Structure formats: C-alpha cells, structure tokens
User: Fold this.
Amino acid sequence: MVREQCPVCSASDIEELIVLDDYPFAGNGVVRADVAKKVPTGTLSVGVCRVCSTLFQMDPISMDDLDAMLQRQPYPLTQAETGMEVAETDRFLEAFRKYAPPQGKVLDVGCGTGSLMNTLKKLGYEVSGVEANPKAVEVAKKQGFDVVEGRFEEGMFPDETFDIIVTRSVLDHAIEPSTLLATMENILKPGGILACEVPNISRVFRRSAFGGFNHHHLMYWTTPTLRYALTYQGLDLLGGFEESYIAMFGQKADKGEDAIEPVPPTDVDIDQAFEDVDRFLERKDRLAEELPAELEKHCPNGVVVLGAGTPTVDMLYYTGMEEMVNKVTTTDKTRVGGVLGGYDFEIAQMDFDKHDTEAVLVSSERRQEELLEHLESYLDHGGRVIRFRPGIEMI
Ligand SMILES: [Zn+2]
Assistant:
C-alpha cells in the first residue's frame, strides 16, 4: 500500500524524502544473529506531508508483516534492549506523577514484558495490558498481570473503562495512528488521561548523521505533529517533555461546547521541520560521499564498526559501505547487529589489537565520547579511530 494521503491530516500534498533500497526488514538491532541471515530486505521510503509536516513511511508494510517482524524480537528484553534508557523511563514516570491521577485503572498498550506495569502496580494503580508478542505476554502473565494478547484494536475493551492509558513506543509503529488514538480515546473514562511516548525524529534530524530508519517505524513524530494528532482526537494537552523521546499527556475532554480545537503545527513549526530535514539530508549526502573515500584512503584493509544499532545499519546501507566493513562489533551483546543480515558478526570486547584491526569506526552517536575513552589503549598502541560527528575525524 503506497500512501496517497497524510496519516494524520489526510492531505494529499505528500512527498518522498528518503529512499533506501535492499534495506533489511528487521528490528532496531535486537534481532539475534542466528536468525539475521533469514531476514528479508525491501525498499524503505520516508515521506513527508507538506501541510502538517508529519513524516511517515510511504509504503508501509502490512500489519501481518509488522507483527512477524516485531515477533522476531527475542523476549524477555531488558530495558536497554528495547532502546529505552533507564533515565528516559524515570523522566516519563516523573511526568506521569505530575499529570496522572494518583490512583485508578491503567491500561498499558504495548506493555511488553510488563516492566512499566510493575512500577505502576507498586505505586498503587490497578494495571492491565495489551501486547502482540506472545513471548512477552507469557513473561508478563507469569508475573500475575492481566494481559490481552493481540494487536490493540476497537472492541477489545468496553467504552469508558480506563482512567489512564499509557502507550510507549507504539504510535511510531502505527499504520493508522488516528484510528489507534481514537480507539484509545473511546475506552478512556471522561476526564481520563492518555500518556504516550514516541521516538523524537527532530532530534535525529538536528543532531545525527544517520537516521535509524527502519521498516517497523511507520511514523516519525515531532512534537508539533504529535500534538496535532492528539488534539485532533479531542484530547486536551496537559504537558510532557521532548528529548530523544517525546512524551505527551492529554486529557479526554467533555464533548459539547468545551470541545477541543485541534492545534495544527504553526508555519514556524513547519518551516523548522523542513529546515531540519534539509540540513539532515545535506549532512547525510555529504557523509555518504566523503566517508567511504576517507576510509579507502586511511584504512584500505577495511574497518571494524563499533555500534550495531539502526543508525549504523542506516549508515552502511546509505553509503554503500557494506563491502568495506570487516566486522561489526558492539559492547552490548543484545545489539549484535543482527539487522546486518548476511554478514559475519562477532561480539567483541573493546580489546582491539592494532595488528588485526587497522581502524575502528565509532558509529554510535549517543555514546561516542564514552566509547572513545574505552579505545584509549588501542589508540596508545597505534590504532586508528574514525568518527563522523560532527564531521569526519581521524584520531
Ligand atoms: Zn499532514
């Protein structure tokens, strides 16, 4: 299905921005190496709405393929394995305490193995969940949680059942986010709270060299577009925060004269979004051209890439650098670079020997300084390190 309309505002003024061919249909680095070689590939195309600036996959995979892909993720996953940092969860809980009532019935849509449900239960809430991954459901049920197995959809719960709905890292996997939000709004009691959290693509565009796009991220949210989507469903915005994730808390408003007016992104928001995208594409194109040439010049025998998450995969596919990479390695064995299906993977410690490792490319964005510290002894022994943020730098 190729989108002809924006999934948030239904405008048909949409445009294709980024196209990656032969891109692996895999999760964010959490597909295990032993199954990685069976991962199929396909074109990944990101589009933008010229009216509301929402970003989305132009040709999203089917719900069945999406379920199959998400179900390839091994469970139980720890928090780090899902890509969520502990600090992000703490921040989310801080906001939760601020905007949600101190007790009541909570539904966690996309509850995974139940780590958030555990925390909320301890805080005194009556919690239950929905989860599509049967392995995760099993783990959550073993802890005594009431979890409905399956894709969250209309008719799963009676209207006006819950005081609070939490949904983290779900709206970014939605083919029809408006339908999903409307269904959540229906099962909230009047005055109930929706607490949602999604990865923040603006931050990627502003800071990163490569984006971490992948087939199971069907929506790429920014604060203005998420705000628009929530208010469009009649939710009154209470607040939230924006870092590498965006958290937003909305309240189901009374219908009638107090009906909520949707808050569309302003012209300034939209200009900003397009500027960010343009700068990102420019940076990405420049690196795609310069990085392989630099590597060929300085390390003709190939390079070890440190980092195995989606930005790394994105970089390799975008630059066509797959051939120059000897090995992808990571300090986190759960992110074994399974997304690079078809290559040989090796989980290595940070003890590179300069005799068999000519150069190390530090791909991780977020942990760059920390990783460089770990590489000090390798550098002391004459090893070479390349990083590409903000520009390509040989150390
Ligand atoms: Zn739109």
Observations:
- The pocket of zinc ion is lined by residues 6, 8-9, 11, 49, 51-52, 54 (CB under 6 Å).
- The radius of gyration is 22 Å.
